[in-house]
Amino acid sequence: MNKKVIVLGGGASGMCAAVYAARNGAEVTIIEKNTQLGKKLSMTGNGRCNLSNLDMNEKMYNAAAEKRMKQWLSVYGVLDVINFVKSLGIVIKSEDGYLYPISGQASTVVDAFKNELKRLEVKVVYGEQAKAVNVIEAAEKYEVITNINSYEADRVIIATGGLSGAKSTMSTGDGYYICKKLGLSVKDTYPALVGFKTAEDEIMPENGVRCTAEISFLLGSEVIAREYGELQLTKDGISGIPVMQASGKVVRFLAEGKPIFASINFFPDYDEDDYLSLEKEMLRLRDDRSLAEFLNGYHNSQINEMIIKRTKMGRSMKMKNISESMVRSIFDNYRNYKIRLSDSYGYQLSQVTSGGVSLGDIRDDMTIVSDNGIFVVGELLDVDGRCGGYNLQWAFTSGAIAGTVASL
């Protein structure tokens, strides 16, 4: 007799689980509280949908998940994702190892999922919010309670996602409550792959500016994270891929009220000797030009203005009247522009959720330790990866494993 499988949540992991279960002959129903499937997936990768990454390994995930990820990725890795999306009719391309649909549109991935679910006759219930999963021990079945109805199943896959995402995704962390009622441990959650607000008194650019830089995050004198790439600076915060890559390590300290500073090196491709040589060359050019004119070709004009304000020098000051030590102070700021962070931009502007259901409560086949008919997958678990397709890889990996096992 075919297994009756209910999937709670129609995001990437839920749809993937549903496809694998249905392909193996299960009778599958997805319960989605939104009015459409894949709402968050349609927004991922700035609408381009970074499906996975050819540079795939467990080191790309949070420390709590690293050990388990090695095993999970050996079961379902990047090549499996490539073959899976191809089976959905999606042509993919690699951009320096980052895998995207060749269409460049996340919507085509969502549509491909919908078409496959329709072909497999997967039933989709929209507009219902899952509230609980009850074990019917006498019948060896499960009862799913929503805000409107109740449903019976042989297997239940909880794929309701975390807290991250715009309001329109309706990412409200319902699954944490459901899992707690099942006796699972849920670790504190935080927004991850997110930017940060700077303290109100910090000097930042009046208009947004992008630049390649190295950024270090400091707790006292300790460097807790260091990244390189294109930063985005605004009048009240910092973002960009380097910031998001480090955010998972940084946001917890901010949540604890600890003072966190970011130190920006605006000349990341110059080593110490190269930069000292550049300083000497610039110092020899001091003449009748104003400070603003002197720095004109040194860096982006908005960054120059930030540093002039930081050093409290007048833009019109003649370079010949500025001491060498003061000029060196200006140059030092280009290599170590230190700013205090006040908070993250929060769940609504984050791409994933850090923390969640403890992996200690999850078996390798994604079932919960206390019951082999209930599965937990995707962002709901204490797994978060770096930017670059790693979080979608986890969604597909966990969903595929759960969907396959649930159908047996």
Concise synopsis of the structure shown:
This protein is 31% helix and 27% strand.
Mean pLDDT: 95
Based on helices, strands and strand pairing, what is the structural class? Answer: alpha+beta
Task: For the largest sheet, list the strands in their spatial order.
Answer: 6-2-1-10-20-19
How much of the polypeptide forms β-strand, as a percent range? 25-35%
Q: Oligomeric status of the shown chains?
A: single chain
Number of helices: 11
Shape: elongated
Separation of termini?
10 Å
Unreliable stretches = none
Helix content: 25-40%
Cα-based radius of gyration, to the nearest Å: 25 Å
Largest sheet: 6 strands, mixed
What does this structure look like?
With 408 residues, this protein is of the alpha+beta class. The chain is 31% helix and 27% strand. The protein contains 11 helices and 20 strands. The strands form 5 sheets. The protein has a 6-stranded mixed sheet, with helices on one face. A 6-stranded antiparallel beta barrel has the order 12-15-14-13-16-17. A hairpin with a 3-residue loop joins strand 8 and strand 9. Helix 1 packs parallel to helix 4 and helix 9 crosses helix 10. The longest helix has 17 residues. It is elongated and about 90 Å long. The protein starts with a strand and ends with a helix.
